[in-house]
Write a structure and sequence with these properties.
325 residues, alpha+beta, Beta Polymerase, domain 2, Methane Monooxygenase Hydroxylase, Chain G, domain 1, 12 helices, 60% helix
């Protein structure tokens, strides 16, 4: 569905809620600072076909925009620039990253944004960019920068939420509670991998935008893209650090489990050795042979109990001293 369709001229919003034919005519009637921004959210194939026909969008890019699930990239089709961005939002209660997608078609006098999923809504971006007449005069490239900048900025709270959960898992691994957070570690690794798929492939497209090797980007906007490129590079570095940290935590957790299992086996072995002494003595005297001198002795029974207690106490103190108990 079309969320908004407006014409911007001289840095200001001139008209809104246009039909597609008037929007296309407006995109071809102004100078370099006049353009149309059409915002769409999860359009169907039929809804997007009319937009594609009016603005002569390439069929391959249209197919990618409708179906979504593309990796971040930037492609040039004839006179149109096609950009794919991955949006992200972290849900701390479930420790999951919700991934969405924004596709941008940028051409001479127009920008078409297609959003899939809930993260990074663009209504706030539209309000913010409409307050910057100096940037809007630079054409659709300014809106493209505003959208990319918002998407990259929204990565920061996601990374912060994941980092806090990683710190909790690290404390849990070394806590005396003897719980094994292996499942939680693997879930966090999966969410970090999702973020890596969003940040890693985005570095190359932003580097191209910052260098000015793509059309429809005003010279005054390139330095803004350099700032966004720096942000996404730092975000990707943070993701890589989280992956290494989780691998280290998983190794530490495996080692902790192994150590605890060894401690349990030592304790079990120690108690088995202690209990083996009275079991052996009781077994000998339980055979009920007739010629056993101790059976006729008045102090035989208490002496046997005393020997068993002394040996068990000696073994207990020994195992305690060597750390088996």
């Amino acid at each position: 569905m079309i969320v908004d369709c407006a014409v911007y001229e001289g840095g200001r919003r001139r008209e809104g809620n246009l039909d597609l034919e008037k929007a296309y005519q407006a995109s071809r009637s102004g100078d370099g600072s006049s353009f149309v921004w059409i915002g769409m959210k999860e359009p169907t194939q039929e809804e997007f076909d009319s937009v594609a026909r009016e603005f002569y969008l390439h069929e391959l890019a249209v197919e990618d925009a409708v179906k979504a699930h593309q990796r971040p990239k930037i492609e040039e089709y004839e006179h149109t620039l096609f950009i794919v961005l991955k949006t992200a939002k972290y849900h701390d209660d479930t420790e999951t990253v919700e991934i969405g997608e924004i596709n941008l078609f940028v051409g001479e006098g127009f920008l078409i944004s297609v959003r899939h999923g809930g993260p990074s809504p663009l209504d706030g971006v539209r309000r913010d960019i409409e307050a910057r007449e100096d940037l809007l005069r630079c054409g659709p490239g300014a809106v493209m920068h505003a959208i990319v900048d918002r998407v990259v900025d929204d990565y920061q709270p996601v990374l912060q939420g994941i980092e806090e959960d990683i710190e909790e898992v690290e404390e849990e691994v070394f806590s005396p509670d003897r719980r094994s957070p292996t499942e939680r570690i693997y879930k966090l690794k999966r969410e970090v991998l999702s973020m890596h798929k969003a940040t890693g492939p985005l570095i190359e497209p932003l580097e191209k935008l910052a260098s000015g090797n793509v059309p429809h980007v005003h010279d005054d906007i390139r330095e803004y893209f350099r700032d966004v490129f720096d942000h996404v590079a730092r975000a990707n570095d943070a993701v890589e650090s989280m992956r290494e940290m989780l691998n280290g935590i998983l190794d530490a957790n495996t080692a902790q489990v192994s150590v605890r299992q060894n401690e349990d086996m030592r304790k079990i072995s120690a108690w088995v050795a202690i209990l083996a002494v009275p079991t052996m003595v009781a077994g000998i005297y339980g055979m009920n042979f007739e010629h056993m001198p101790e059976l006729k002795w008045e102090f035989g029974y208490p002496a046997a109990l005393l020997v068993m207690a002394a040996v068990c106490l000696t073994l207990y103190r020994y195992f305690k001293r060597v750390g088996w108990l």
